[in-house]
Structure formats: structure tokens, C-alpha cells
Specification:
The protein is mostly helical. The chain is built from 7 helices and 5 strands.
Amino acid sequence: MSIEAVSWALNDAPDVPPQCLAVLIGLANHAGADGRGAYPSQERLALYARKSVRSVQRDLTELSRRGLIRRGDQRHVAFMPPDRRPVVWDLALKRRREHPASPHPSAEPRPGRPHQLAEPASGRHDDATIDRDADRGDAHDRSGRRTRRNDTTSTSCKPSFNHQQPTSARTTTSRRAGASCGRHRGCPAHNCGPCRAERLGGTR
């Protein structure tokens, strides 16, 4: 077996008919490193190519006509009986086909995951994301406020550290706690005894 001859038959042999390739590889399997001295029987070539002996004979004739093989030194089979001697073939290893120019390495596909699409420059979410946000009962904006759908007011979720009472509450408390009666000094306005007595006397 010659790796050089098999490699030539697979890669570099020019103008090989597709139907003859198996027979050519079979001959290369029995040739020397220089492609000479291949003498497998036609029955063995038929076994290699999964063909009949008659088809192998036609393939040998076609390969010889194209100059890919030629009859070699028949003395290699002189030790065999004359009625069982196969034909010795030499392969034309010097004949080589021209290979097309290989593409640039950057043009070939690279293994691995495909590149992900870049996010739009506008920063907008896709339609599915917008629909999901619209279907939710409430959403949070960037300031941390929770807004409800179809509401114009917003309520902050952040805790407030301002414990001051409203103005109206402070005024009412101050009146109740520190204001005095306008008619009777020293009496609180909300609990003035003389005023209360006058009101009770007036009701009698």
C-alpha cells in the first residue's frame, strides 16, 4: 500500500471520471511509492468498487485512454501461472490537476456560537418588552416611584424622613396648647372657665 499513490488518486489525479475513481484508488492501494508495479486482479478491483468484472474492464480502458494509468513492467508477475497473471499498471503520479485558489481565512465560517445582534442605538426596548410593561398593573420608573396605569399621580416608595405636620394641623395644635382666651387672661382659649359659665348661665 502506498499513501502517496492513494493521496494522488484522491486529491491530485486530473480528469478522473467519477465512475472510475474507485478503480483508480484500488490500483493506488497496490502501487509503490512511485506509483508503479500495481497488479491487483480484476476480481479484487471489482470487490473494491462494488462492480462487476466487466465494469472494471471498462474503467481500466477509460483510465488508460486518459493517460492516468499505463501498462508497466510485466516481469513483476512472472512468478504466477500464465493463465492467472494480472496486468501490471503504473500510475501517472506526475500528472496533477490545478487546485482552485483557497478563499481568504476570514471568509470561512468560524466555529462557535453566532455573533449576537447589537442592541439598537436608541436604547428602546422591543415590542414584546413594551407589551409586557404595559400589561403589568404597576411599574417603577428610574426615580424609584411606583406608578399605576392610567394614573396621573405618583407615590414614592422611598421612606420619608420629614415628620413635620401639615400647616393646618400645627395651627390647630398651637391654638389648643398655647392660645389664651381673648376676654379672660390666664385662661386657655379652648377651656375658659368664665366663658363656659357664661354660656351655661345663658342657657338657663
